[in-house]
Amino acid sequence: MVRNLANRRHPDAVKLSRISGAIFNGTGIILSLLYLLIAKIFGFTYIPGWIALAVFCMLFILFTWLIPTLSYRRFAYEVFEQEIEIQSGIFFIHNVLVPMIRVQHVEMESGPFMRKYGLAAVTVVTAASRHKISGLKSEDARRLQSQIAILARVKDDDDE
Asked: Residues of 90-126 as b/e, b for ≥16 C-beta within 10 angstroms?
């Protein structure tokens, strides 16, 4: 049974994803241009530099504009009394049901870029896997962490 999941990431998660993609692929573009400069100075072949530049330019467009928007639209989650349902994916949609009785602990994390936008991620840990719900406002993430911990009857990491 496919349910309509109501909870989504915060729109600032798209900005953060775009910034991350721009930094990573921008670095690749700069390194490609640096190779082309070194190739000109030392007489190396330009082919690897042009190939790398073309690839990183395409990836820049893909991971700065297309992927963040599609990922935002496709990601959703819902916490029920007996389970957590997480839907993700871009081309292939994955639906994961995590039974509350399998939850061992719940983690909340926020890196420097996430903190700049007031975002955080909640990770639900079971014996077999980890399920991340990222791109939430910090207050919402803390509430979600507490809600899951209560429903799963686990101790909060902050309580230890």
From this structure: eeeeeeeebebebbebbebebeeebeebebbbbebbe
pLDDT of residue 111: 94
110-159 pLDDT tens trace: 999 999 999 999 999 999 999 999 999 999 999 999 999 999 986 544 54
Full-model pTM: 0.83
Backbone angles phi, psi at 110, to 5 degrees: -155, 110
Q: Domains of the chain: which residue ranges?
A: 12-72, 76-159
Residue type, 140: D
- Separation between Cα atoms, residue 86 and residue 43, nearest integer Å: 53
Do the Cβ atoms of 14 and 74 come closer than 8 Å? no
CATH topology of domain 76-159: PH-domain like (2.30.29)
Question: What DSSP character marks residue 141?
Answer: H
Give yes or no for a contact between 114 and 127, defined as CB atoms under 8 angstroms apart: no
Picking from 114, 119, 124, 123, the residue whose alpha carbon sits closest to that of residue 136 is: 119
Burial of 35 (0-12, 13-18, 19+ CB in 10 A): middle
